[in-house]
Design goal:
Helix 2 packs across helix 3 (108-117). A six-stranded antiparallel β-sheet has the order 1-6-2-3-4-5. It has a two-stranded antiparallel ribbon with strand order 7-8. The protein is an alpha+beta fold and 160 residues long. It has two domains: 2-121, Alpha-Beta Complex (endopeptidase fold (from Nostoc punctiforme)), CATH 3.90.1720.10; 122-160. The protein is 38% helix and 22% strand. It has helices at 59-63, 80-88, 108-117, 123-159, and strands at residues 2-5, 14-18, 24-29, 34-39, 53-58, 68-72, 95-96, 99-100. The chain has four helices and eight strands; from the N terminus they run E-E-E-E-E-H-E-H-E-E-H-H.
Length: 160
C-alpha cells in the first residue's frame, strides 16, 4: 500500500496532502472534485476546537496548493459507495466517534481511515510516538551508561 501523486481521485479514495508544516492532512474523496475531511474553515488546525468539523469541501480547498496523494491500490474493506456513505454520516458534525477533534487521538487521519477500513488509526501519530519512545530509550540508555561509567570510575579510585 502506497500513496501516489498526480492521479485524479475517485469516490471512496483515501486522500492525503503533506502540509508545509510537515504533517499530512487526510480525507475521503466523495467525487473527483469533492472531499469530506475533519478540518476548520480556513486551516486544518485551529486553537479553537469548536471550529473543527467534518465537512465536505471542493478538492481545491482540501489540497490548498499542496500535492494531492491517493492511496493505491484501493484496498478498503468497504465498497467505494460504503466508504462515502460512512464519511457522509459524519458530515457537518464537530465530533467523530462521540468526541471532538484531538490532534493525538481523534484527528483527520483517524476519521478518514475509519471510513476507509473501519480502523480509527493514525499512522503519523503512531510514528511520532514510536520516535519519542525510541529517543527516550536512547536517552535512558545513555544516562545509564554514564551512571555506570561514573560508578566504575569511583570504584577504581577507591581501589587505588
Amino acid at each position: 500500500m502506497a500513496f501516489v501523486k498526480d492521479k485524479t481521485p475517485y469516490k471512496g479514495d483515501l486522500l492525503r496532502v503533506k502540509r508545509k508544516q510537515g504533517y499530512f492532512h487526510f480525507g475521503i474523496a466523495v467525487s473527483e472534485d469533492r472531499v469530506i475531511h475533519f478540518t476548520a474553515p480556513n486551516s486544518d488546525l485551529s486553537e479553537d476546537s469548536k471550529q473543527l468539523k467534518i465537512i465536505e469541501t471542493p478538492l481545491s480547498q482540501f489540497v490548498r496548493g499542496d500535492v494531492l496523494e491517493i492511496q493505491e491500490p484501493y484496498n478498503a474493506v468497504f465498497t467505494r459507495d460504503e466508504v462515502v456513505k460512512r464519511a457522509k454520516n459524519y458530515a457537518n458534525s464537530s465530533c467523530f466517534r462521540g468526541k471532538p477533534y484531538n490532534f493525538i487521538s481523534n484527528n483527520c487521519e483517524h476519521f478518514a481511515r475509519y471510513c476507509y477500513d473501519g480502523k480509527a488509526t493514525s499512522k503519523q501519530v503512531n510514528d511520532v510516538a514510536t520516535a519519542v519512545v525510541a529517543a527516550g530509550a536512547t536517552i535512558v540508555t545513555g544516562t545509564v551508561a554514564a551512571v555506570v561509567a561514573s560508578h566504575n570510575k569511583k570504584v577504581a579510585k577507591k581501589k587505588d
